[in-house]
Design goal:
By secondary structure, the protein is of the alpha/beta class. The protein contains eleven helices and nine strands. The protein has one domain: Rossmann fold (3-Layer(aba) Sandwich). Helix 5 links the parallel strand 2 and strand 3.
């Protein structure tokens, strides 16, 4: 079952437009390829998807490629409904808070840990979480992390224009618990914290996940009802590929060319650490 078929299933179950889910298509595609590259299914790896959310890469590798996958998620940040939805497809372990609770997984029990689009949401140091990943991984096991690049081109331009690059103050102010981005990373940051957590970094790269997408609908930030509890449904809608009748697709071409030439301007960081 393809990534976009999984998006359609999730859209049917959650009510969110597929265009919102398409934002992650290229990122999810790269992650799945990375898992197959470093931990091929022939080795029969056990995969723990921590802070799994909707767990799209895990759904695909479990269904299409036969990986043995289970999910771990936080009731505090993921929420009960997300955990219930994930548990319909994957065995799911619920914990309260990743930052304060040891993972309920035996030492050296898994071959792969996925920690995708999550480290930027941690409100405190990632040290405890990364040390837990090191504990539960078998020797020779892999940790996969991806996260937004704080130095991407769009954010640099926004800074020059005096625009905020972190979550809107409206969202932070009007919520009692801020589950958005607390700290974004550079690739050097990501490599350092993996090394400090006793992982050998076997891959660390910048990904361009946006140039291959087309914006189909955008609600300007000032028109969004932030703090309403319905922020996801107000996010930008995307389609995959180039759509020549859309002005956005032509306007992005010079920027796409620039990020192709200068990797540090790309929007996403991807790193793989190996436990020796």
């Amino acid at each position: 079952m393809s990534i976009q078929e999984q998006y359609k299933l999730l859209s049917d179950r959650t009510g969110y437009d597929v265009g919102i889910l398409n934002r992650d298509f290229i990122r999810h595609q790269f992650i799945i390829q990375g898992i197959q590259r470093h931990a091929p299914r022939e080795t029969h790896p056990v995969v723990a998807d921590v802070a799994a959310g909707w767990a799209v890469p895990s759904r695909v590798i479990a269904r299409d490629f036969g990986y043995r996958v289970f999910a771990v998620d936080s009731l505090l940040t993921g929420g009960e409904e997300v955990l219930k939805l994930t548990n319909q497809t994957l065995p799911t372990i619920a914990i309260w808070d990743l930052l304060t609770q040891p993972l309920p997984i035996k030492t050296e029990a898994v071959n792969v840990v996925l920690f995708l689009a999550t480290i930027e949401h941690l409100r405190d140091s990632p040290k405890f979480v990364l040390e837990e990943f090191h504990r539960i991984l078998k020797p020779g096991g892999f940790l996969f992390i991806d996260t937004p690049n704080i130095l991407e081109l769009r954010k640099r331009l926004m800074h020059l224009l005096g625009r905020q690059i972190m979550p809107s103050i409206q969202f932070v102010y009007h919520t009692t618990f801020h589950a958005g981005h607390h700290r974004e990373y550079t690739l050097d940051d990501l490599v350092k914290i993996l090394n400090w957590s006793k992982f050998r970094v076997v891959e660390a790269t910048h990904l361009d996940t946006l140039s291959g997408l087309s914006m189909s609908k955008r609600i300007p930030l000032q028109q969004r009802n932030l703090g309403s509890g319905d922020e996801i449904s107000q996010m930008t809608r995307w389609d995959v590929g180039f759509h020549p009748l859309r002005l956005y697709d032509w306007a992005k071409l010079p920027f796409a060319a620039l990020v192709k030439m200068v990797p540090s301007l790309r929007d996403t960081l991807f790193a793989v650490g190996r436990k020796e």
